[in-house]
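Our working data are protein records whose layout never changes between entries. An example says more than a description, so a record of this kind follows.
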Amino acid sequence: MKFSIIIPTWNNLNYLKLCIESIKKNSEYDHELLFHINEGSDGSLEYIKEKKYKYSYSKNNQGVCVAFNEAAKLAENNYIVLAHDDMYFCPGWDTVFCNEIKNSSKEDFFISGTMVQNFGTYIKLDCGKTYKDFNEEKLLKELPKIKFNDYQGSHWQPSLIPLKTWNRVGGFSLEFTPGIGSDPDFNMKLWKIGVRLFKGLGNCRVYHFSSVTLRKRVSNNGAKTFLLKWGITIKFFRKYYLRTDTTFNGELKEPDKTFSYYLNLLKCKFSFAYFYILKN
C-alpha cells in the first residue's frame, strides 16, 4: 500500500534530507514524496529538483496551510500522509498505518502517528535537539523498548487521511495562515461531516525536532480565529469532542452534556462575545 507523503519545507535543507533519508530507509513500501518549497533560498529547491521529486513552490513563505493544500493537488494515491521536514520516520511506521487501514471499515477517518521528543506528553526520549547532535543509533536501540498505547483525538502530524476525505473538506483553512490552529480546525471540519474515528497509533512513530519552522517566529492567533469561527475554544474541542490523549476505546461520540461541559461552554461564549465585540 502506497501513500502520498506531503512535506512542507521552509529553508530547512539539513532536516529535509534527514527526513527523506528516514522515509527511504525505514518504510516497507515505496511511497510518493511530495513537497511544497517555501522560499528555498538555502538550496532546498535545487535539491528537490535534482532528485526529481514532485513539488509546489512559493517564492515567499506562505505557511503550512497553503503548503499542504498546494502539494496535495499533486497526490496520486488514495491516502495522504501529512508530515513536516523536522521529522525522522522510525522503522515500521507505514506498516502500522497500513494495518490500521486494513482492519478498519471506515471510509473517512483521521489517524496519526506518535511523536518522539526530548520533552512533552508523548514518547519522551532524548536523541538530540537538532540534526547536528541527532543520535540515530540510540533512537533505533532504545525506542523499541518503550511501550505506548493508542489514544483518542490526535490532531498532530504525521497524520493519515483518505484523499477523498481531504478533498471533501477542502484541506486546511487559509484563515489560519501561516498555520497555528489549523490542525484542530481541520479536525473540526472533519467532525462536521461526520468523521468520528480520530485515532493516534502508539506504534507508528517519528522523532520530532520540535517545530523547527515555528522557531523562526512566524505565527498567527489561531486560538482566537478558531473561537470566532466555531464558537468554542481549541481546548474545549480537544477535551469534550476529541477526548484528546485519553486511551483509545473506539469511535468518538457526541460530547457528554455534563455540568462541566455546560460551565466551560458558557466560558467559551463569554470569550467569543469579548473577541467579537473587539473585532467589530
User: Anything to note?
Assistant: Residues 38 and 257 are 44 Å apart (CA to CA).
